[in-house]
UniProtKB/TrEMBL annotation:
Domain of life: Bacteria
Species of provenance: Ensifer adhaerens (Sinorhizobium morelense)
Name of the protein this chain belongs to: Uncharacterized protein
């Protein structure tokens, strides 16, 4: 579930606690969590609804100044079932503090190495270290550049880099990627 920057800012302030989406199948479920640029959201409810059931207050809680503005956005994507998603901000994205941990204990370093080895094993090729080294070579290196250099499809490399990001080893920039302090520390000792 994606949010525009203006809505993300309102989520961070606690002003937005609802979203409306048309989906063929929901992408979130009640009780689940969703990481966003504004932090982790806890999904409280996902309910099928109709446009006639959306109130002015609902529109405001979804970040829209009027009900009509919300309905206009929903009408831009008319296919699928309309869902009302209630959520609350549950805290910061844990990857943010994780990636700043530049001092790694032996046990942390070993856990990262084990995880990377499993990534390589399931992919039937060693991709983690070469990818980390390419990202370390230049801040802002793009997925397309990395994909070309390692001979892997761009979408596949993006999925792989997200796995590295989950471990706090990389950061996404406006364009491209860079190693986090944690990633640099890990790579320096490898």
């Amino acid at each position: 579930m994606l949010f525009r920057k203006a809505i993300l800012d309102q989520i961070a302030e606690g002003a937005v606690t609802l979203a409306f989406r048309r989906w063929t199948k929901p992408t979130v479920k009640a009780g689940g969590r969703l990481r966003t640029a504004s932090g982790v959201l806890s999904i409280d409810a996902v309910d099928v609804t109709g446009t006639e059931d959306i109130s002015v207050e609902d529109a405001h809680r979804a970040g829209f100044t009027t009900r009509e503005a919300l309905l206009a956005e929903l009408d831009a994507r008319p296919d699928g079932t309309l869902y009302r998603i209630a959520f609350h901000r549950a805290g910061e994205d844990p990857r943010l503090s994780l990636r700043d941990e530049a001092t790694l204990a032996k046990v942390d370093r070993a856990a990262i190495a084990d995880r990377l080895a499993r990534f390589d094993e399931t992919a039937d090729q060693s991709w983690t270290e070469p990818t980390l080294r390419l990202i370390a070579s230049r801040d802002g290196i793009t997925a397309a550049e990395i994909a070309e250099r390692v001979g892997v499809d761009k979408l596949k490399i993006k999925v792989r880099i997200r796995k590295l990001k989950e471990l706090g080893l990389t950061e996404s920039l406006t364009v491209g990627y860079r190693l986090s302090p944690r990633g640099r520390s890990f790579l320096d000792e490898t």
